[in-house]
Specification:
The protein has 237 residues and is an alpha/beta fold. The protein is 43% helix and 16% strand. It has eight helices and seven strands; from the N terminus they run E-H-E-E-H-E-H-E-H-H-E-H-H-H-E. The protein has helices spanning 18-29, 59-68, 92-120, 132-135, 141-161, 179-182, 186-195, 204-214, and strands at 9-13, 33-38, 49-53, 74-77, 123-128, 166-173, 226-229. Helix 2 (59-68) packs parallel to helix 3 (92-120) and helix 3 runs parallel beside helix 5. The termini are far apart.
């Protein structure tokens, strides 16, 4: 898979639905060629988007993706998963799945593409964390821990690669109207919406706009930063 000559290339994981799909579309509208990676990538919604089946927890498929594409200008780690449970009701199999998808998947994909970006001398890494990783979230203890790890990982990578012209930043969505959000009990959805000062969840496109900013030339001097997109739900520093 190669970008059209003169066109920047982006890799977006978790691009089959929700924030990832909205991000792939936003980047394509911005003139990038996009490889939309997901367990269920679906059909391309734009001629600039190439859907690819990838499991971010499977090192072989991640390595195959890296071998099959040219060095990307932008890597967006958006793949994520969770279920809401009291921590005491969860077990090791659940913990490992949450951490493998939400933290180790980010680590694996970044590790696969970063050496080539360093060799070329530039690029953007945008990791989708969560406000749960900034302030905690009842019923999402392991998820919050994994997303907190994404934040710390992003800052650490940003320090290591800044001298190579590569930026790394994190977006922290609050409740967002995605299939994962709608899979929660209705009463929990309603409680979350009541807690948001704007009284609604984010649209995936609103989070995608923030991701697209960090991926753009306009954000070339911004690195190691964490941006909350939560409608005012979390205003902690």
């Amino acid at each position: 898979m190669r970008a059209v000559s003169g066109t920047r290339l982006a890799i977006v994981t978790g691009a089959g639905s929700g924030i990832g799909r909205a991000t792939a579309l936003a980047l394509a509208r911005g003139g990038l060629s996009v490889v939309a990676a997901d367990l269920q990538p679906g059909a391309a919604d734009d001629p600039a988007i190439t859907p690819v089946e990838v499991d971010v927890t499977d090192g072989d498929t991640v390595a195959a993706l890296a071998a099959d594409v040219e060095t990307p200008d932008v890597v967006v780690n958006c793949a994520g998963w969770d279920e809401t449970h009291a921590f005491v009701d969860t077990g090791r199999a659940f913990w490992e799945r949450v951490v493998e998808i939400n933290l180790l998947g980010v680590v694996a994909v970044t590790h696969a593409f970063l050496p080539a970006m360093i060799e070329r001398g530039g690029g953007r890494v945008v990791n989708v964390a969560s406000d749960a990783g900034r302030v905690g979230s009842s019923g999402e203890a392991v998820y919050a821990g994994a997303k907190g790890g994404v934040i710390a990982f992003t800052k650490s990578v940003a320090r290591e690669v800044a001298r190579h012209g590569i930026t790394a930043n994190a977006i922290c969505p609050g409740p967002t109207d995605t299939p994962l959000f709608r899979a929660q009990e209705e009463r929990l959805q309603e409680a979350l919406v009541r807690a948001i000062p704007m009284r609604r969840p984010a649209a995936p496109e609103e989070v995608a706009s923030a991701i697209a900013f960090f991926a753009s030339d306009a954000a070339g001097y911004i690195t190691g930063q964490v941006l909350s997109v939560s409608g005012g739900l979390t205003m902690a520093g």
